[in-house]
Specification:
two-stranded antiparallel sheet, 10 helices, about 80% helix
């Protein structure tokens, strides 16, 4: 990455603290995770979150000891730049443009609604982006290890690489377990936003003379359509990275299959590789991949149509 990813992780950790999601932050100078006393008491009851700090410590340690100085590859760098750009766009959208959108619904409780929405969306965005960064960091590790595995010719070096790979697999599984519930809730929230904005887009395009349209100016209509598109792209970028995780795992299998040296060592690790899910999974039920994006969009469209059918007579007025 052209910019210092540790600085990005530091800013993200402070963003998580401000929204009440973490009780620790990442110190850029010392590369350590430090407990924030003011927020640690809030997280006493979050038992699953308490293990997150330990897992992230190990992930930072692996990056510092084994992967520092290696390039991430053009695909991963592009994904990082794209996701970071869309996060910035989302922050600008929800803090500067969304208040105008919300004002037409509840003028009496406007300030309360906006503050509640800011807190809710900031928490959702911070949690999703944190998981994306963890998944990206894991993919970076797999990418670097695959490059080294493909050229390794010494048994000692190969053994070390496979040990590092095993640690990374274990961390990725633990991280998935920590984020599995928030991941499902995040996908559900995305689905709800797609339904709500899809409903309004249909009314804007199909019923231009309705009373609903009369309350919206052109700028607000553009905002609604762009928001729908941006949320869909954001979801796709996350699942696209998860698919890259799957491809890197498959690439590892191919490298090991083609390796004719140290067959016994490679066979043992291949068995270990089979113990871990081939895809990024939530709750051992949902496969986090591109198909999930299209499934959520399809279901959102279905529920939008059902909602429209119930309101059609009223919307025609």
């Amino acid at each position: 990455m052209a910019f210092d990813k540790f600085q990005l992780y530091g800013l993200l950790s402070w963003f998580m603290i401000l929204n009440g999601l973490h009780h620790f932050y990442f110190n850029v100078k010392s590369h350590r995770l430090i407990t924030c006393v003011m927020t640690s008491c809030i997280h006493k009851c979050w038992e699953r979150k308490m293990s997150l700090k330990k897992v992230m410590k190990k992930l930072v340690f692996l990056e510092k000891q084994e992967f520092t100085g290696f390039k991430s590859g053009p695909k991963l760098r592009l994904r990082c730049y794209m996701k970071s750009l869309f996060v910035v766009i989302t922050l600008i959208r929800i803090h500067f443009f969304y208040p105008t959108y919300m004002k037409r619904f509840s003028k009496d409780l406007y300030i309360l609604d906006i503050c509640s929405y800011w807190l809710l969306y900031n928490m959702l965005l911070a949690e999703v982006f944190a998981y994306y960064c963890v998944l990206w960091q894991t993919c970076r590790g797999f990418y670097i290890l695959n490059l080294q595995l493909s050229v390794s010719r010494r048994k000692k070096k190969l053994l070390k690489l496979l040990q590092i790979y095993g640690k990374l697999l274990k961390l990725s599984k633990q991280m998935n377990e920590v984020y599995e519930y928030s991941g499902v809730f995040g996908c559900a929230s995305k689905c709800w936003y797609q339904i709500a904005f899809g409903y309004e887009i249909f009314v804007i395009l199909a019923l231009p003379k309705s009373s609903f349209n009369a309350k919206l100016n052109m700028a607000m209509k553009v905002f609604i359509i762009l928001t729908f598109i941006l949320d869909a792209i954001n979801l796709y970028l996350a699942t696209d990275l998860a698919d890259e995780f799957n491809k890197l795992r498959e690439q590892t299998r191919r490298i090991l299959r083609e390796s004719r040296q140290f067959n016994r060592l490679v066979s043992i690790f291949s068995l270990q590789l089979c113990l871990y899910p081939e895809r990024v999974m939530f709750l051992n039920v949902f496969a986090f991949d591109r198909r999930l994006t299209f499934t959520l969009l399809t279901k959102s469209l279905l529920f939008t149509i059902c909602w429209l059918q119930g309101d059609y007579a009223k919307l025609k007025e």
